[in-house]
Specification:
The protein folds into two domains: 269 residues, Zn peptidases (Aminopeptidase); 124 residues, Aminopeptidase i, Domain 2 (Roll). The chain is 25% helix and 30% strand. The protein is built from ten helices and 20 strands. Strands 1-2-3-13-4-14-18-16-17 form a nine-stranded mixed β-sheet, sandwiched between helices. Helix 5 packs parallel to helix 10 and helix 8 crosses helix 10. It is globular.
Length: 412
């Protein structure tokens, strides 16, 4: 279990953006013999071979072939994106003697923890080399920016009523002297930027502090992007070790609603499954089960009143099964029964999560893909504290328990 969690942390550290996560997962799959497919080409799938395909380099689907005739596929869904600060197209400004980079919050980001952190920048850039348009991933691993807090002497209410204005308060500073920002970005591709012209970028700030084990007994994992790179890693690891037919789909844009050509609301997963199944698509969906894996809110020890006491998962006490009567989660008694039976057979504990009836409930890709595909679905997740913060926290036992269940669910 320790080795599993160490490799999980290494994956998250190496994946500051969905582009980097997909690139890492693709390399991991190829090392295990998976064959890359291209969406714009004809697929000639062969029995007992494994495949993967990407879209936009920010979503990835991997699968074994063929599906089981009686039970179809175990489909595992997760998402590659996390809330963060995205660089604006024309970001550079100068105020009070410092150069700043304007940002736009991506998803439901918890803004306060972004103050006073060493920030790095990563993502995809599109550029011209002469007359040829190219793309590249960059990752400026060293800290280049910080968002300083306003001193308490200038904000006496900071500890009682602090709010953050996303336009004016959360702007990273990067320098006092002059800077050619375009040249700086292009220099991450190669030192000599002669002949290079920046066309566009999708760049995101991230905390340069690496993930770690925390606690007297090192029982906790603390890291950025646990939601939901943890589930991507767990799903792919299970796929590479299982003996049952499985598909893992790690999709972008979940944190902003999934409505894009690469998100769960788009066509990527459905089109992939139709190419696998051919005329048997409907039959395959009716025989398959989907496990939507997305981190669950653990009971916060300092704010117990924010939880339903009978349905509040606890760290290191098992995978949380997420239930909502209004279909914000897609779990049914049938899919829950199958999942729990598998967990019990492995002696892996499970918990249930239901949000308080007087609070709003988030959602996942589960209801979206279940609706689009017509596949029975269960929503599960590893209990997590500080969800959507720049640094989140989970237990060391729970990701490994989910991994074991996913490996064997096809037998139930």
């Amino acid at each position: 279990m320790r080795e599993f969690n160490e490799e999980l942390i290494q994956f998250i550290d190496a994946s500051p953006t969905p582009f980097h996560a997909v690139a890492w997962l693709a390399k991991m799959l190829e090392c295990h013999g998976f064959i890359r497919l291209e969406e714009d080409q004809v697929w000639n799938l062969e029995e007992d071979k494994d495949y993967y395909v990407t879209r936009n380099d920010s979503s990835i689907i991997a699968f074994t072939y063929p599906p089981c005739a009686e039970k179809g596929y175990t489909i595992v869904g997760a998402h590659t994106d996390s809330p963060h600060l995205r660089l604006k197209p024309n970001p550079l400004t100068s105020v009070a003697g410092v150069k700043r980079l304007g940002v736009e919050p991506y998803g439901g980001v918890l803004l306060n923890p972004w103050f006073d952190r060493d920030l790095s920048l990563a993502g995809r850039v599109v550029y011209l080399e002469g007359d040829v348009r190219r793309e590249a991933l960059i990752n400026i691993a060293s800290p280049i920016a910080v968002i300083p807090s306003l001193a308490i002497h200038l904000d006496r209410d900071a500890n009682t009523s602090r709010t953050v204005n996303a336009q004016t308060d959360i702007v990273p500073i990067i320098a006092t002297g002059e800077i050619d920002f375009e040249k700086f970005i292009l220099s991450q591709i190669r030192k000599d930027t002669t002949g290079l012209t920046l066309l566009a970028h999708e760049l995101s700030f991230y905390d340069s502090q690496k993930g770690s084990f925390v606690g007297v007994n090192e029982e906790f994992i603390t890291s950025a992007r646990l939601d939901n790179l943890l589930s991507c890693y767990v799903g792919m690891s299970a796929l590479m070790e299982t003996s049952y037919p499985m598909i893992v789909a790690c999709m972008d844009h979940e944190e902003v609603g999934s409505d894009s050509h690469v998100g769960a609301g788009g066509t990527f997963l459905e089109e992939t499954l139709r190419r696998i199944a051919g005329e048997s698509f409907t039959t395959l969906m009716r025989r398959s089960v989907m496990v939507s894996c997305d981190n669950a809110h653990a009971q916060h020890p300092n704010f117990p009143s924010k939880h339903d006491s009978e349905h509040a998962p606890i760290l290191n006490q098992g995978v949380a099964i997420k239930i909502n009567s209004n279909q914000r989660y897609a779990t049914s008694s049938r899919t829950m029964g199958r999942f729990v039976q598998c967990a019990h057979s492995l002696h892996v504990p499970t918990q249930t999560f239901v949000t308080r009836s007087d609070l709003g409930c988030g959602s996942t890709i589960g209801p979206i893909t279940s609706t689009r595909l017509g596949v029975e679905t269960i929503d599960v997740g590893v209990p997590t504290l500080a969800m959507h913060s720049i640094r989140e926290l989970s237990g060391i036992n729970d990701a490994y328990g989910l991994y074991r269940i996913l490996m064997h669910l096809g037998d139930f």
